[in-house]
Every structure is written in C-alpha cells, then in structure tokens.
Amino acid sequence: MSEVYAARRERLRERCAAGGSATALVTRPANVRYLAGAAPRGAVLLLGSSEDLLFCGAPPSGEADEGRPDEALRVQVLPRAAADAAVAAADAAIAQGADSLAVEEHHLTVTRHRAIGSVAPGLRLADLGGAVEQLRVIKDEEEISCLRIGAEIADQALGELLESILVGRTERHLALELERRLVDHGADGPAFATSVGTGPNSGRRGHRPTDRRVEEGDFLSVCLGATYRGYRCEIGRTFVIGTSPADWQIELYDLVFAAQRAGREALVPGAAYRDVDRAARQVLDSAGHTEGLPALTGHGVGLEIDEDPQLAPAAMGKLDTCVPVTVEPGVHLPGRGGVRIDDTLVVRPEADGGPELLTITTKELLAL
Question: What distance in Å separates the CA atoms of residue 156 and residue 159, rounded to the nearest whole number?
Fold first, then answer.
C-alpha cells in the first residue's frame, strides 16, 4: 500500500503546486488517513517540500480504528502530549525552507489558524480547500473491497437479527445487539449510531432508538453500517412485525421501493447528482408525498459515512465510475410510521453490469 499513499500525496502535491503552494498541512482526520494510512488522535500530515511527515502526540497504536501509517512516511512523535501537532508541522515547513503553506481552513479553528501564523509569521498561509475530499470521491479497487467486506458484515448482522424473536424488545436493545454483532463479525465498529424505529417511529431518518417496545403489526425500520479498515457503508430496511402487513403498509412500502429502484437505476457514469435525486423524488412526489421528504436521496461513503457527492436537488456535478454512494429514499407518516430503504452501491458503466450493489439483504416486505 505504500506506493498507493505516495501516489495520493503526489496528486495532492500537484494540486498544491498549481495553486502556488509547495507545501500543505492536512488536519482533517479522514484526509490524514487517506494520505498517510493512519490518523492517530490529533495527528496531522505535512506535505513538505523535501519530506512528508506525520506528526502525532503519541506513537501510532496500529489499532484498526486509526489504521497503520505508511511505512515510507516518517512519523514525528511530539515530545509533549499537549503540544499542537499543526503548529509543530508549520515549524517543520519553515525548517524545510517553505515560504507558503496550504491549510484546510474549513477544518482549522480560528485559534489554531492564528497559532500557526504566530509560530511562522514569514509563512504565507493559503487555503487548501476541499482538495483532498475531491481526491477521495473516486475509490480504487482496494477501497471498494473494504466497503464490500463492510457491507457483507452489515448484511450478516442484520440477517441474524431477523431470525431472532423481536416482539417485546426495545428499539435501544435491538440497536445495541446489532452493533455487537457487527464487531463479532469483524467490523472495526459501527459506521454510525445504529437507528432502529418501531411503529410511529419507523421510517424516520436518523431516528435515535428509544425504550419503545416492538409490537405486533408494527413497521420496523433499521439503518446500520459497518466500518472495515476505516471504510464505512450503510444499509437500511423496513419490515412488518408478526402479522401480514396492512393494505396501507403494502402501498407505502411499494411506493418507497419504486423510488429507491428509480434512484438505483439512475446511477450511471455521467449522470448529474441532482438527476439521481430527481429520479427517486418524483416517484414520491407523484404519489402526493411532497412534504417532509429527506433533504437528499443519497450521498457518498468512504472513510466518512457522509461525504461527497451529495445526491440532492441543488447538487452540482456528475457521477464518475468507481464512486460509492447510498440511495435511501423514505416516507414517514406522522403518528403512523413509515418506510426507508437504503443501499450502498458503486457506480459502474453499463458494460460492467451497471451499478454494483454492495448491500444485498432482501428488499422484499417480510413479516417477521
């Protein structure tokens, strides 16, 4: 992997040079990990004029949640744990003879930005912007492999839960059990806080599990994700508990399923982000569900669970091959509940079979 990280840093170096900076300071943890292989707590990466350095407050542990540093990258452990790695990196940039430094202004606090300026007053600070995030949008096959394994783990955890007795158990208990199963099957941990909604709570995006117990006839919506080697994916499904679904439940489920299918079928290289959103959203709009819909139909995933691109009505840009995204439309009826169906897919050309579905748990409306 060393050559992969070196190539990523070289691409960033070229972007920095085009912007007039020979050096860059990367502070956002996911960006540090993307370029260095690891992001210990508080670590920063200096893309130097003569040498790249990873600054840490403590020696890297090598644990799965922080990754393993690129072996070709020198790690500089600060002598004091309270020292600011970003300030130390700016000082090192000066020592390397730099006269300018591109920084991630969208991540740095004002206080930290001022501290860098004070330790290196002769250093011209420029804005790196979202350069690293842009590099991260298109994944290589190693990254996609990590997402694929994470999806398999999430599918397995969800499948096992569906085989257990659910009536009478609380949303909170089910969420905790799912997260335990993720780790049991090899995940670094959950990709985000697991959401379990029952009855009137079902179908709500980002619902935090409560002590409400599962009852016969409820909709049960579950959204979970696994992190594997730092890469995060997600899956969301909706089921009916203990009995045949009511007519309104079948009608609502079929509608959301149709919207999700339309969004998935729109995932082709060159498709505008907002056109993917429109494909799913207009199915729901045509059925009269114009109020209370999620702000977006999906988003990119990777080292963070919510990254570019955003599949939203006003989003600018077009899809590329090898971009993993979610498609997750949903409808929630206040006081009754709702449906959410969520998959992680990778954009692929039609010649390669079209979008690759990573999360494969059935989307049939099951009565559990």
Answer: 5
Q: How far is CA 259 from CA 123, 177, 317, in A?
A: 52, 30, 22
The pLDDT assigned to 18 comes to 87
Burial of residue 211 (CB within 10 Å: 0-12, 13-18, 19+) is exposed
Give the CA distances from residue 33 to residues 42, 113, 116, 156, 188, in Å, rounded to whole numbers and listed in that order.
12, 21, 22, 27, 15
Assign 136 to helix, strand or coil: helix
CA distance 358 to 153: 11
Report pLDDT for 122.
81
Which uninterrupted H or E stretch holds 9? helix 2-18
Alpha helices in 192-305 (DSSP H): 247-265, 273-286
CB-CB neighbours of 164 under 10 Å: 10
Task: Give the Cβ contact number of residue 118 at 10 Å.
Answer: 10
The pTM score is 0.94
* Residues β-bridged to residue 220: 198, 239
Query: What pLDDT is recorded for position 4?
Result: 95
